[in-house]
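re: ur question from earlier - yeah i can do the single chain one, its not a big deal. heres the input i used so u can compare w yours
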Amino acid sequence: MEFNIKKFRVGDYVEGTVYQVTKEAVSLDFGAFTEGTIYGKGLSLTDVSSCKDLVKEGQELDAFITKIDMERGQILLSRIKLLQNEKFKALKAFKDSKETFTVRVKKVVKGGLIATKDSVDMFLPVSQISTKRVNAEDYLNKELEVELIEATDRKLVISHKTIEARMIKEATEKEFATFKKGQVLKGTVSKIVTYGAFIRFENVEGLIHISELSHHRVENVSDILKENQEIEVKIINIDKKKLSLSMKALQKSPWEIFAAEFKKGDEVTGKVIRKTGNQMLVEVAKGVIGVISKRDYSWDPRFNLATDTEVGNELTLKITDLNVTDKILTLSKKHLEYNPWQDVTVKENDEVMATVKELQTNGALVSIQGVNAFLPIGEISTERVNQVSDALKVEDAINVIITKLDKRNWKMVVSKKQLTEQKAHDEYAKYLETEEQVSNTTLGDLFKDQLDKFKK
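and the output i got, formated as C-alpha cells:
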C-alpha cells in the first residue's frame, strides 16, 4: 500500500478496515502511514465496557481524524461526530413529525438552557420553558418533555412551553365541560383587578365582577378579597369559554335578613337619607330603604316634610307594607301617634262649649273635644271688635256654633257671633209667636171661664 500522509489532516473524514480490536481500542487501516486508533470513548455516544462488544475485525468503519502525532507516529480517530450527526439528523426529523421527546438539562446559559439527548445539544429559550414565569436554574439536571420548534443544519431549538400549553388547554376544556350554571364550588383568588377578581379552579379561571362580591356597595375589591384566598362561589353565567361567578348569590340579601326580623305592623328605627316635598327615603338597615309619604308622616295635614324634617334625622316608624321580592317597604310615622281628631264627635251647626287657648291678631284658637278650632275676629261678637283681647281672655269658656268642620284636614271654624244671632233670632221668633197668640184672643175667650161658672 502506498502511503501519503500529506493528504490527511485533523478533521478529515476517513474510511477503513478494522484489523485489530482490543478491550480499550480499535485499530483502523485507512491507507495512512500508520493505523488510526479509536479508543472506547470515541467509539460510542454511551459508555463502553469493551470495544469488542461493538466492533469486529475486518469490519468497515468510518471516522474523523482528531489528532496526528508525528513524533509518536500515531493518528487518533473518533466516531463521535459521525454518531452525533446521525442523531442530529434523527432529531431534526422530529420537526416535521411533531413528535415529542425527553431531554435532560445540562447547563444554564444566557437566554435559556442547554439540554441534551443522545449527546446532541439543543437550546431551550427561557420564553419556551413554561407558560408561567420561572427561574431557569430550577430546571438544571432535570428531564423535560419537549418538541422541536426550529431546526437548521447547525442548531436545534426546543420548547417545553408548547407541550405544557397543550396539556393545559386539554385539561381546561375537560374541566370546563363539567361546569354548570348554578353550580357552587370552591376556588382560589388568583388576581385582583379594579373591576373584580379572577378565581382559579384546577385549570379554569372565572371572574367575579365587583358588583357580585356583596349585596352592599364595594369601593375596593381588596377590602373583600386577598390573593391566594380560598372562597366559595356560584356560577351565574357561562358564555362560550367565560365563567361569571358570584359571592353575592350565596349570601342572603339585606331584604331577606330584614324580613326575617321584621314584618308588617312592626316598629323600626331608620335614618332619613333623602327627602322631597312629598316623600322621604329612610334607611332602616344597610341596603334596605323604605319610603314614607307626606300623608303618612303626621296626622296633622299642615306638616311640611321639606322644612320640618332634616336628612340625617332618626325616626321611629311603623311598617305598613313589606315586599321582599319587589323590594318595597312603606313606612308610617303617624300610625304610631295618637290622632286627636278621631275622637271628635261634633258636627257642623252644633252648639258646643269651647275654651280659649290662644289669642291671635285675626282671631282666637279655642279647644273643642281636645282639638283646636279657629274663631275669626269677625265671628266673636255682633258688635265690632278691634282687638281680640277686648272680648276674650285665655281660658275663657264660651259657647259657639260650628260653622265648618273638616276632620281629615284638621280644620274647624266656629262662631260666637252666629250663635248670639241665632239665639236672638230664636227669641224674636218666639216673641212673634206669642204676640200672634195674644192678638187672636177675644173678650169672650178672656171671660169664658167666668161665663161658664155663671151659667152653672
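Confidence is low (pLDDT under 50) at residues 1-5. not sure if urs matches, ping me
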